[in-house]
């Protein structure tokens, strides 16, 4: 379910904001403070930054008599908005032992109270739109909270589980499916980009025409078992399969196998998950791959990665909003795992759509300034909040990023 | 004039190979040995590697009783072909004081003699095609020889000229033009990629359909004078104009002004050229820009960079082979400086065309494995050999590269 | 008061071990987990590692039926003892959010209980000696806990205080003294190194003869006010004052002023202390200097740093055990601040005394293997536990280290 | 034979300056231009810098109507004298393809002519002293020319010889000797430092008393064969033998065997020398060791490195000036290879002697500012010019330096 579409904004706000605290629930204060690498952030920082977003972009311009919760937070919890001013250096987020987690919870409560006052009754459309953007933003961070804490826990030789309890969602990358088949698509001149009436990010606009040659997509994602065949066939030893940059990373030892695989000896593999170390499940989708690995695997299979236009074209034919299969779109076996298993690398660099224009002001830094040296991932993952993704959604990461739930759907 | 189209292969071989030695002519043995950065190579290395290409890909498989000129050269002068075997580390090319420049000249003469024997009479089409590829390859290195030696000489506080004599071509980036205007293009479903009968690189294939929305291109390149206005207006101090990666490089001091501009005080600028230091010519095209700078400039002007499809679409309408203006294509003032001035950054990442397939074997490493994290440049520069470029030609460099003759044509 | 000299070992154990927990007392779980740089360690890690020392070097060989508290701790909390086996990488100590601080406290309690059993009654001399070493080791870490947490808190733009309460000891670097004077020493053939019957580290042995030329020492440490004169006179801008390595660090901006000084504008300075930011006290000793700064300051004053032999010679004449002034040693005003204010840089590299032999086994790695590229500091600081230091004590750090309480006593 | 002692200054000048050109004789222009690492310099740079020394410190202050040979050379060929002004960045010396080698030779000839005019007749003592310093300085660079070019050629997979001709001196590290024995020395209160009437560097002064405990030195240097035993016994795999910094370098793969040893398979070793690759001579001294390796080897043998005072004490007893053995000093077998084979690592850090005072002005930067984090080497090597070294001579390098001819004499 999307935000604010079938529920009022107050309920959506409470639901989404509450979910962030639920994610932090199984974690100690220490777990919430540490930062495992510059690309990841502490859980506490996520909790504060998402609050900062509401305070800075909604309360500050729209609350009568606005006073900041804490004047230093404007800098401490600014992620990358130059238009807002200075920002604490990203690699040092893990050194912020103060404010404490309790103080950040108090910060959240205070901002929540003030936002509730602001949106009570019938808020102005401009404010409602900003609240919706803030909630979508917070949902993006909810996924990062899970992937960042997974990366943190994976650095610990004890390999602790995020939670041994029943989790609110399945945090492994997709359930097993049957055999894979090729689904044919005719292509042609297609409309790409968001065309509905609900929320979308600016990078999904404008909807525009693009020409797509006929293509085929695999009916499901590549599995751990299939990827293991690639390893066993020497895939990581054959430079002919790799992009040059990828091969350089193989040679330095950075790329040896999917990020969280653990060699268990005698050809067996374990995998570190949010539930702790588990035997590798050959039937589930392979995940935590770089674009380099996804691309090399595809080449080894005589296939390739899809473009983002191909992926969206297929998704639009095959799905209803929210990821359910549209029966009429099924071609033979039908197409599976478009959403909710792993983000799917495409061969498309992250670039503006024709006529793209970011919003004016600091909020316009949300997407546009990252449109270089990143690649688009489509779909959604097991860590994506329900209802957050859609067929036109454009996720993006550098080609070497592996700590997200990133997998492979083959094309040809 | 292209290679081998209107002249026989023997003449083309002699002409192109001789040109490399001409480029090295004004340089000392020392000049030819040094390497200014890992991305650049010594002139001597270029002379040897282009010879290695003929020896390895033509003589070795096709010469009866082949014996290498020197067994160690197979490794020393292999640039990046993993299929050929080991290669000398790129950052250490400048430490190869042996073989001497004279020995490399002897290597060239020996291979030239043997290639001449092989192609005497009526060579097999496979061999003729490889010779043509070798000559096109050598022409690419001829441009690199000029840009690499320019970078080397620029590191020297004496700022020595490559040559004070009349050079065989104008080695500054394009002659002055008049005022710039916007040329309108209708776009539509267009065919992109090489479609002729002559030579092209594999990355220009296959020719394929793509949809292009209506667009406008500037009639000429951005000039030094126009770019100076950007600097004077604080372009390098306003993060709102920059891609995030570009702004990071501004903040570290890497990007302050075009690569070879020299602050002459009191608002005046000089420029280091292959002819030595000269006062900046406000009317000539600005060059030696990164994609980040090109993109920031365009944003400041309320414009953008063209896509590679837009550029090719316009070039095909506007030009005859070789860069002359097609009168019928002129829209208003006509479009200028598509070729022969500066390579023109596009917003298109370097990616395979639909259906792209590299050649089998080591020669297939020529282009395909670099198709990640690079951006396409179109046109050609003052350093490109005559007849080398064409409308479908795809040059590519990382977004931060500045030592090529890289400039900006605006689109909107 | 030293350990175990006038109190029994059980009381000493309880006192010293309890003190570590007192130091952690004002800190949150988050404060105790973070690591500000590879050279520093988290408080929690200090609490665990000092416990590991007792478990590994005493319980493991001497406790009947020894079983480890947790098998992974042998690696996690090994600092640098190759003889014990693998060790967790030092720069990643701050990522160990598990075990929790509570679990580490339980680890401490368990080992304390077992050590108490082992030393109940009349422990074997070998065990008693190891317990004493373990307590001395823990006292060294107590000082590091304070300097490491100071460094951590200093990275936080909020500049939080370690504690706003009355602290168990004065945690600023020494009380103001009067004017400085030169104290003359005759030198001659002197005995250097520990010569008593109590505890000392192996690096203080063997006591040996060394020849010392006549010299003078300043009667007190250099003050903040005096050092500010050096800054105001351009000391950080004149290469003639600096060792070449130091000047390199000045040029990169690493060295601008003492580590925790904060430019308050208009020529005023604040200083970050464990009590928070405070106005710089001109009368207190300057501290948190590198050897490079100490040496440059001395040169600017026409003086030099003492050798460690000079310092020990002077301390032996001037002090009773524990740092009290020996009246007969007073030369004019007497010598002050030898202990308890700041560690004092010497010009002596950390090297073995003639005939030095480390203990056999892993415990022998305690000191000897660090005897290269480190410089000796003498005395003790405001953060040194009472009774820990003595005239023969040899502290050592690299020349660039600044996060200890390091100051300057001039010699000539 | 020392400089200027038994020959007049004109002859000494011509002899020493001519020797630098002889060393460059076997090398091409390319060989003379390249720089293999920041610590090494191109031969051409050495030829120019040594000339710069005479021009800057003698001609500039003392020649009537002085005009520089080339104004830019003041910066280009300044090594590290901040007092002279700016300097070209050291890591970029290899990019100076201009001035050419021929121009540098012309620079040398010009300065030689002008120095000859200045010292014709009876030069002022101040000038004569500076000329002597310049010649001693040039001799130091003559040794560096050989070690730097050896390092450069060793980077080339062709492993070219510096010269296949008969060289003016034996450029391998010392001739074989017989068995090693221990020579006993009584020690006591000794005078250390230069005490003669000839030339010495400022770091050899002042002569001063030091106390030396009784010690023993090995009668000759450690041989390749003996060091090979250390390797075969697993010396590079046992952390207990190593200083911690050394072991870190073993673990990164930086230290595997002496710098120029080449594994020839089946337990055999070759060695790269200035004469090219040769089978390892088990009887010659092992050389190109870091202090870490020298120290680990000594520990493995149950010995240690000497202090510089022990070494000088022994050398003074055992030698006449110039390195000949003093018969009366022979203890049993006599002491060998003190000079002319390898520089010998000592355990002494490079520090000022008591009362050391550098010369005023820029020339005072010659030695003093390097007195931190360096270790003293004593003796001289096969690459040291005849007559350059003496018993009080203090060479110094960082503990990790290996490209000098550095070996081991054991002490205990």
UniProtKB/TrEMBL annotation, chains A, B, C, D:
Domain DinB-like: 13-145
Domain of life assignment: Bacteria
Annotated ranges, domain Sulfatase-modifying factor enzyme-like: 181-319, 330-412
Pathway linked to the protein: Amino-acid biosynthesis; ergothioneine biosynthesis
This protein's UniProt keywords: Iron, Oxidoreductase
GO biological process, one term: ergothioneine biosynthetic process
Pfam families xrefs: DinB_2, FGE-sulfatase
Protein's name in the database: Ergothioneine biosynthesis protein EgtB
